[in-house]
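During the no-cost extension, the postdoctoral fellow (Dr. R.K.) reprocessed legacy sequence entries with the updated structure-token encoder. One reprocessed record is reproduced below for audit purposes.
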Amino acid sequence: MLLSFCVALLFAGCTSAQQDTKNDETQTSSIDWSAELSPEQYRILRQCGTEPPFTGEFWDHHERGVYQCAGCGSPLFSSQTKYESGSGWPSFFGALDSSNIRTRVDREHGMIRTELLCQSCGGHLGHLFNDGPAPDGLRYCINSVSLQFEHDSIASKEASPKGEQH
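Re-encoded structure tokens follow.
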């Protein structure tokens, strides 16, 4: 039963209201997302899919830097707010700039959740839960496929011998 539920979540898409991104004020009609994104990025960012837990590139990633939206490059999370939630997805206790992320109610699969979207491109990032660490108790649970990572150049210089660039 639990396995069936997990499989359903993995292949679930958005509601019809969520899938209508052409009328979204953050969208530009000139972007062909299917040409800009890999098929998996398209499924998750544009169709509200979910990657399987413990499989994404960033769930066990510990380098210093900034996590950006894979759709548009908007800065979303600092590595300083990433933590191990045990969920199998990258988890953060705060956004780099809360104005870069918007929320909406997700009522799919018999649950009421808070969906997280990129403010700039409207891409589906993941969900927000209230089971995170102090002080706010928030967990930003994000699909790795929705992210790209930019290394912190200062941290890279400090880690390199004699300050050599990577």
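The longest helix spans residues 2-10. Residues 126 and 142 are 4 Å apart (CA to CA). The remaining legacy entries will be reprocessed before the final report is submitted.
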